[in-house]
Amino acid sequence: MKTDKANRLPHDREWQLQEAKNRLSQVVDSALHDGPQTITLRGKPAAVVVSFEEYRKLTLPQTGLSLFFMQSPLHGIELDLSRSGDLPREVEL
Prior knowledge:
Blueprint: E1 13-16, H1 17-22, H2 24-34, E2 37-41, E3 44-49, H3 52-59, H4 65-70
């Protein structure tokens, strides 16, 4: 049943489309517990069923911190980053 092992994760399982339709509950359960499930159409990978948690991980924005700051509405505003010359305050413990 498996075809192209090089492009799949070790725990992927392949399902022919008709088999996936007949056993949808099992496909979803396997995606939740065993990882991505590949659905094939005419012997070639056509779709992948993943858990919602995995989907969220895959679709989260991958913005780096520096890009985040460059895209900020505050980008270009000059900030005073000099240290204060005041003496430190005493704190009772």
